[in-house]
Amino acid sequence: MDTEAELGRRRRCCCCAQDASDVPKATEPRGDSDGPRRGSLCDRYCSTINNVQGDLSDLGCHLHRPRIPTAVSPLSCCHQHSEEVCESCMVKTTLTAENAVEANKLSNNYKFGFKKWKSHVTARPWEDRSEIVKELYSDLNVIRSPGGSTMTCGNVLYLLLFGWWLSLFYGIVAAVMFVTVVGAPYGQLCWDLAGYFLWPFGKVIQKVEVPKSHRVCEAGAEESSPLLGGPRAPRWRPWCSGGTVYWQRAGAAAWLCLGYPVLAVAHGLVSIGAWLLVFLIPVAKLSARTAARVLLLPPERVLVRRLRMTEVPLEGEVILCCYSAVNPYYYKYAVDGINVFAVNLLPLVLVTLVLGYMDSHNRLTSSSVKFTLALLSIMPLSYYIGMAIASISAQSTFAVGAVVNATFGSITELTFYITALIKGSREGNRCYTEIVKSALTGTLVGCVLFVPGLCMVIGGIRHQEQRFNSRSAGVSSALLFLSVGGVFAPTLFSKVYGKLVCGECHNVTQNPLGHYLCHNCHFDLMDNNGTLYYSHVQPLVYTVSLLLPAAYLIGLFFTLKTHSHIYDIHISDCHMPGHHHSAVVHWSRWRALVILLLSTLCMSACADLATEHISPILTNSTVSQYFIGVTVLAMVPELPEIVNGIQFALQNNLSLSIEIGNCIAVQVCMLQIPILVLFTIFYPTNFTLVFSDLHVYASMFSVVLMNYIFMDGKCDYFQGTVLVMVYFILLAVYFFAPSPSGC
């Protein structure tokens, strides 16, 4: 009888597919004749894994052990163990993390029902970052070899957008300062800076030392001897030149009144514009540093010159030295852990809320503009909610993380659905109910087809073939089959037992017994005072709404407790001995909780504004309301998740890319729809769990195709293209479909 420890060691000796993202695959053996070779490779892998401390329950980083490679991928199990033992452990994934908090976040990514998050929740050690990332956070004060010509497209773009008019401003200010006579030194400085900002690349601004003769003030005015002799007591004296305090000079006063405010405003506009363009952030840094430092220095201490390769730099501090205006890697830039795009879109939320609630009569903007702003504001709020959930889960216990993910994981979609149902109920408009159903179906179809398909295509461009955990994908596929069957069971029931009612029929043959052509036909569930609906369909809906969350809980218990080896994750160290780094979290638990609550509140407000101003779009649009629901309303809130999936796919971690789409689709059917049904019990609306035929066929076909693609555990860009093309075909069907009844 094997002990539990021996069985654990045997399980580590089984087939292991590489889900880690940073380490290349080992060479895979081919053919059946390589049995001894596979055994020896597995033996080496076993010896490596057995030297690692802990398992999934011990997620701390062993910072004093040598670094372990992420995974080795033999195709078969150890020859000395039985097939039964090997089949019980399909995948072993070894990941690296800087600290225990990041280890918890990485482990949570592989847990079913937890939000998958790519960005770091802690500050990465500076020495672990690449040179490209380090350059993003530099202060533009390092003199280096330009590595080529400064005549680039990005630098020319700077000249066209900012350089010419900023140089013109400096020329005008220089003329004004020369006219004042006392401000002539500042006029000369502005003239030099006019040439600098016209083309600042390959030039340097230095803070030079002032000669000692200019540093001291007049002895009689500034120095005094102690009465009884002895050493003088130290006194603080401001910088002075020619016996006069710098900021009391007439030229400085003229500069602060006439020159600096104008240039500060100009540099502020340049900084804001360049920051919003993201890839021009070096220009924003250049402009901000000029307004904050260069323009506040005495003109005698500022030197502007062109940097030549053979020239020795002067002694003094380098303030600015820029070689390129555009850096394409600034999409990685983060402020306190927040991606720069989410930072730039945050003011959009404030503008949306102010316009939406202050301009209720549409005097400043139209309803279409307000709807678009509200929809775009959902994207950064979804990012902040995801970041907050990941931060809290990584710093908390498993139970707290599970509660937070279950409570706020679907808050983005539910806020919109509930506000739309409330508005439709108040106005008696059934179109809002159909829009909600279209959005639910669009989220399901998009997350099953578009999200994994797009990740396969983009990841397949970099990696010829990608592998993923087919066992975990099979669990999600089984839950999807179950959930889709449960959600559409009332619809199929109504098709079988409902009474077909047509709004308008015409006799084609002019014969009472001839053929009739009918329009607007549907199955009526309210025949005989709604006996069929209230006695049969409604109890079925409530039963399904109870069974689906129960199945979701069983899936959680299966994947996280009894069969957690499906996601057999090991978190290894990533630092050599003596390089210990403590976890510096971007957001503490309390800060993340406050941001989560505020983002949820703003999300509810934006969802309310979106539903408030969607009515003109639905009534005046020539596009089918089905199409608006399955595209815009369904996929815009999921854009942060799509970005996360693409980033995982680019790092050859397709398992998480697939799980992102599957988890959202499962939550739509097993959590969001039952919650909406429960909401209608306490707040009666027109929402019933009876969908149109188009929604049923599109959802079932998508789930079947997805399950077929994911069957073998490997994929390439062609299979991803198939999923994306099928998704676009379904969108074309929705585009040309007539609008639902009531819209």
Describe the protein in words.
This protein is mainly α. The chain is 57% helix and 8% strand. It contains 26 helices and 13 strands. It has helices at residues 4-11, 35-50, 83-87, 100-109, 131-136, 153-179, 184-198, 212-215, 219-222, 250-276, 281-292, 340-358, 367-394, 398-408, 411-427, 431-462, 470-487, 489-497, 527-562, 589-612, 615-620, 625-635, 639-650, 654-682, 693-709, 717-736, and strands at residues 92-96, 203-208, 240-241, 244-245, 302-306, 316-322, 334-335, 338-339, 466-467, 499-507, 516-524, 568-572, 714-715. The chain has a three-stranded antiparallel sheet, covered by helices on one side. A two-stranded parallel ribbon has the order 1-12. A two-stranded antiparallel ribbon has the order 3-4. It is elongated and about 105 Å long. The N and C termini lie far apart (69 Å).
Low-confidence stretches are: 1-91, 215-244, 574-580
| SS class | mainly alpha
Radius of gyration: 33 Å
Which sequence of strands runs across the widest sheet?
A: 5-2-6
Globular, elongated, flat, extended or rod-shaped: what is the shape?
elongated
Largest sheet: 3 strands, antiparallel
Mean pLDDT: 76
Strand percentage, roughly?
5-15%
**Overall helicity:** 55-70%
